[in-house]
Every structure is written in structure tokens, then in C-alpha cells.
Q: What sequence folds into this?
């Protein structure tokens, strides 16, 4: 009878470990996705900086300044979308 009890405990422990391992794997995948989103944001920020530095160093006609400003605004909007995805992902990560 003791052997059965020990076996049952062993199965339960193994099931718990398997469940924990699966949970950690899911968290790792979410963290990888989070890192990817942060990298995309970083790229957009660097692009915005390049545009701003170019505009600041140049005497541009108003139509070109307006075009560059629109490019920066598009990149800001893309960043806001990525931030939303990031927040969603973080809430998923913390709810687990």
C-alpha cells in the first residue's frame, strides 16, 4: 500500500513539475515577443532621431519640413500601436 502512495505522490510531483515547465516556456515566449516589440520601438525612435537631426541641421523649404514632420508623426503612431501590443503582452504575462 505504501508503494502505491509513493507512486501516486511521484506522479503528482511529476505532473506539477511538467505544468511548471510549460508555464515557464510560455513566459519565455512572451518575453521573447516583448523583446521583439521593444526592438521595433527602438528602431523607430532612431529613425525619428535621424529625421529630427537632419531637419535641425538643414534649412529646408516648408513643404520638405512638413513632409519630415509627417514622417515623424507616422513613426509616433506606429510606436503607439507597438506600445499597445506591449501593454497587452505584459498584462498577459503578469496574469499567468
A:
Amino acid at each position: 500500500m505504501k508503494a502505491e502512495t509513493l507512486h501516486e505522490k511521484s506522479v503528482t510531483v511529476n505532473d506539477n513539475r511538467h505544468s511548471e515547465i510549460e508555464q515557464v516556456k510560455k513566459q519565455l515566449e512572451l518575453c521573447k515577443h516583448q523583446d521583439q516589440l521593444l526592438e521595433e520601438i527602438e528602431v523607430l525612435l532612431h529613425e525619428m532621431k535621424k529625421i529630427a537631426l537632419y531637419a535641425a541641421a538643414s534649412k529646408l523649404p516648408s513643404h520638405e519640413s512638413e513632409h519630415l514632420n509627417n514622417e515623424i508623426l507616422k513613426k509616433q503612431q506606429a510606436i503607439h500601436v507597438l506600445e499597445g501590443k506591449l501593454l497587452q503582452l505584459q498584462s498577459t504575462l503578469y496574469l499567468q
Observations:
- The helical segments are 2-57, 62-95.
- The longest helix spans residues 2-57.
